[in-house]
Structures are given as C-alpha cells and as structure tokens.
Amino acid sequence: MGRRTKLVTAHGPAEAAVDAVDDPAFLLVLTHGSNGGVDAADLLAVREAALGLGGAVARVTQPFRLAGRRAPGSAVKQDEAWLQVVAKLRRRFRDVPLVQGGRSNGARVACRTASAAGAVGVVALAFPLHPPGRPEKTRVDELRGAGVEVLVVNGDRDPFGVPDTADAAEVVVLAGERHDLNRDPAAVGRAAEPWLRRWAGPAAGLGAGRPVRTGGR
User: Fold this and answer.
1) Distance, first Cα to last Cα, the chain
2) Tens-digit pLDDT profile for residues 48-86
3) Which residues make beta-bridge pairs with 59?
4) Residue 29, Cα to own-chain centre: how many angstroms?
5) Which of 4, 41, 188, 198 has the greatest number of beta carbons closer than 10 A?
6) Would the CA dihedral through 106, 46, 92, 16 be positive or negative?
7) Pair 147, 140: CB distance under 8 Å
8) Quick check: 214 pLDDT over 50?
9) How confident is the model at residue 1 (pLDDT cuts 50, 70, 90)?
10) Which whole-number Å values give the CA distances from 60 to 27, 93, 97, 104, 217, in the listed order?
11) pTM above 0.70?
12) How far apart are CA 13 and CA 6, in angstroms?
C-alpha cells in the first residue's frame, strides 16, 4: 500500500508510503502515534477517504520509529524532522493544498507544525488531550494554536480525554471507541471524508454520508 521511499532529515531518516494519483486535488500527509505505525486502522481509513476524493496520500514513519524507538524524544527535534519531510513531499506535489494529520502523538505534531508547514487544515485522530488520569496536564493549547482549522476525531471512551467542541473547528466523538479507534475504522473514514471534500473540487465522487458531529464552529 503506497510506494515507500526514504527521506533524509537532520534527525535521521524517515520513510513515506506514498499513494500518488494523476493530477491530485490535494496532498494529505499522515503520521503515527508514539508507539505505532502507519498501518493503523484509523490512518488507513482516512487514507481511503482521501484517495476516494482524488487526493494524494503520504503516510510518514518518523525517524524515531524507523530507528526502533518507542518514545519520540524532543518535540523540537520531532517537529524539525517533520517539517523537513513535509517540505520534500511538497516539492513532489507542487502547488496542491496540503492537509496534514496523524493519530495521538502524530496529531500533536501535525497541530504544532501546521502553520510552519503551510497546511490548510489538520486531521487529528485520537488527540491525546492529557495523560491518562492527569487532566490538569492539558495539551489543549496545541489544538487551539494550530493556526488552521482542525478536525478532531476521538472516541468517547478515550482515557487520554476528549477535546471540547470549542477546541477545534470540528470535533467528532465516536461512541464506544477508545484511544486506538479500531472498533469501527470505517466510521473514522466517514468522519474525515466530508471535511476533506472542501479541498477535493467539484470532480470528487459522492462519498459517504456526513456523520453526526458534536458542535463545532
């Protein structure tokens, strides 16, 4: 699934699994959580939604994971490496709109770097609002400070918390899902599809129906 290519960064090599399409409407760049990979069910569901809308998709394995580490380390270094990867991918796809996103820690990276990357939006899956049992350690400023519109998709049983409807442009809360969002991955894709459609242009297919959302602004 996707042609895999290595990308050099200042903090070690990354790898991108790229699904290229003819004349893409947009580029969606996705990444994993701190202890996961790019084949997570929710990431694949969003990938399918984007491809169905005529977007190109790159799923990025960050340097720390490619090196076999489970912890991302310094946020500054992680963000620097991410921006270098995105810049290389953008050169390949030229002037199409960039949407970036990820799950869990990857969603944090996507939010923190959105403005610097020149993204038009962020897809944040299972955004870890706080460490389990530590709501006072909130990361809400990363969501609110993204500088672009953010779609959040979280499960209502996520021990890392669920962002409030005021914290992002749209917040979709899926019943029965925990942090892994793997109970019904297709629902994650259905949540992302109408939001991604805004960059797909008039030629996009009809796609799935719009899911029920909680709030938004």
Assistant:
1) 35
2) 999 999 999 999 999 999 998 988 889 999 999 999 999
3) 17, 30
4) 7
5) 188
6) positive
7) no
8) no
9) low
10) 13, 15, 18, 14, 30
11) yes
12) 6
**Hey, what are 46's tokens?**
């969003």
| Interacting residues of 113 by C-beta distance below 8 A, sequence separation 6+ | 79, 82, 83, 86, 100, 119
Q: Give the separation between CA 49 and CA 151, rounded to whole angstroms.
A: 14
Q: How many other β-carbons are positioned within 10 Å of the β-carbon of residue 169?
A: 17
Structure tokens at 67: 């090196």
The pLDDT tens digits of the residues spanning 37-49 come to 999 999 999 999 9
Task: Return the structure tokens found at 171.
Answer: 């917040």
Tokens 């942090």 appear where?
179
CB 148 within 8 A of CB 122: yes
Show the DSSP H helices in the chain as ranges.
41-52, 63-66, 75-93, 105-117, 140-144, 185-196
